Amino acid sequence: MELRGLAEHELAAVARALGQRLELGDVLLLRGPMGAGKTTFVRALAQGLGVRRPDRVRSPTYNLCLHHDGPRPLAHVDLFRLAEDDLGASIGSAAFEALGLTALTEAGTTPSQVLVVEWADLWAEPPDDALELELRLELDDFTRRTLVASARGPRAEARLAAWEHASERSG
């Protein structure tokens, strides 16, 4: 799915619609340059999830992971500060485990949250079943964004299909 020319309020509406369709255990991998709107997207997604204080969603860059309570809790991770080790390697599973997040993506565990990872391209071993979202600034209008969404794995494919269907009906 690709949506072009989204103003901030349109991006927020799209994110809320996705949040309404996510379930515990779903994983979103967010990519995009600094200032593309990743955290803005997550804040609106949190509204759709029903987290108790979506206004408190902010970039977890310095905390690495922030948890937000609600009927469908959100674990919001930002890998930007862990971008590279001295050799330029991507974040491996050991670093992700050190954050206490490996259990959120392991098969056979009872899912307790929705996991959103900003700067996900830095994660060397992301889960096999995840929604992948890329946000880009429009070259001719920096107030507009392009959102490209794809899915890998059956669970993510089902979420993407439901989200696309809802977008078609509302658009």
How is the largest sheet built, in terms of strand order? 1-7-6-2-5-4-3
Taken in chain order, the helices and strands follow as EHEHEEHHEEEH
Distance between the termini: 13 Å
According to CATH, what is the topology?
Answer: Rossmann fold
Q: Specify Rg, calculated over alpha carbons.
A: 15 Å
Assign an overall shape.
globular
Considering the protein shown, what is the CATH homologous superfamily? Answer: P-loop containing nucleotide triphosphate hydrolases
The assigned structural class equals: alpha/beta
Number of DSSP helices? 5
Q: How does CATH name the architecture?
A: 3-Layer(aba) Sandwich
Tell me about the biggest sheet? Answer: 7 strands, mixed
Identify low-pLDDT runs.
none
Number of domains: 1
Q: Average pLDDT across residues?
A: 81
Report the β-strand fraction as a percent range: 25-35%
Name of the top-level CATH class: Alpha Beta
Please explain how this structure is put together:
The chain is α/β, with parallel strands linked by helices. The protein has a single domain, classed as P-loop containing nucleotide triphosphate hydrolases (Rossmann fold). The chain has helices at residues 8-21, 38-49, 93-98, 102-105, 154-170; strands at residues 2-6, 27-31, 65-68, 74-78, 114-118, 130-138, 141-152. Strands 1-7-6-2-5-4-3 form a 7-stranded mixed sheet. The mean pLDDT is 81.
Brief rundown of the structure:
With 171 residues, the chain is of the alpha/beta class.
Give a topology summary.
Elements: E1 2-6, H1 8-21, E2 27-31, H2 38-49, E3 65-68, E4 74-78, H3 93-98, H4 102-105, E5 114-118, E6 130-138, E7 141-152, H5 154-170
Parallel strand pairs: 2-5, 2-6, 4-5
Antiparallel strand pairs: 1-7, 3-4, 6-7
